[in-house]
Design brief:
Blueprint (H helix, E strand, L loop, with lengths): L5 E6 L7 H9 L4 E4 L2 H5 L15 H17 L5 E4 L6 H12 L2 E6 L4 H9 L7 H14 L8 H10 L6 H6 L10
Parallel strand pairs: 1-3, 1-4, 2-3
Helix pairs in contact: 3-4, 6-7
């Protein structure tokens, strides 16, 4: 366990469930929030106020985001909150590994909005709660209409792939050979 007092927080949850609001609260006045979605505003399209997602840009987004996170970790910013889906995959595993190498404690948080808490309890047994989760997918699609415009099919996929009780070890296990892969 790192003893430096530096902390990186991975915020994870479904779209439109309150990740960004909780991220800002966790960072407080002195912390740093890196929103993975910033790429889709600032680096894609011609309108920086419009969320412009393109599948052809995913790899570039991952490199751009990792560079921003690396810079913050190398500078020792704390708390550093990574606001995004933070799926258990090699890309998020890279953030975790770099943070540990920079002597950060890594914690995992989720939104605390009332609707996320309802959804989260349903995700404990998704097969049993499929109809209720499908209704939430519709509601989250509606909630995201003014920001990310997440299609219902994407939300249904995210719900189906959701993993409960994710740990730092799960992120490290997702890395190929335990090393950062560059693209």
């Amino acid at each position: 366990m790192p003893k430096s007092g530096k902390n990186m927080i991975l915020m994870r949850g479904l779209p439109s469930c309150g990740k960004s609001h909780r991220s800002r609260r966790l960072a407080g006045a002195c912390g740093t929030v890196i929103e993975i979605d910033d790429y889709w505003y600032s680096e894609v399209g011609s309108d920086p106020t419009a969320y412009t997602w393109r599948s052809s840009e995913v790899d570039r987004c991952r490199r751009w985001t990792f560079a921003r996170i690396s810079e913050a970790l190398d500078a020792g910013r704390t708390p550093l909150v990574i606001d995004g889906m933070n799926d258990v995959d090699p890309f998020t595993g890279h953030y975790v590994l770099h943070a540990l190498r920079c002597d950060y404690q890594v914690t995992i948080e989720e939104p605390d909005s009332p609707w996320w808490l309802q959804i989260r309890s349903l995700l404990e047994d998704p097969a049993l709660h499929r109809p209720a989760l499908d209704e939430w997918a519709k509601k989250l699609t509606f909630l995201s209409r003014s920001t990310h415009r997440v299609p219902i099919a994407t939300l249904r996929t995210r719900i189906r792939r959701w993993r409960n009780n994710v740990s730092v070890a799960d992120y490290l296990a997702a890395l190929p050979g335990g090393r950062i892969v560059t693209h």
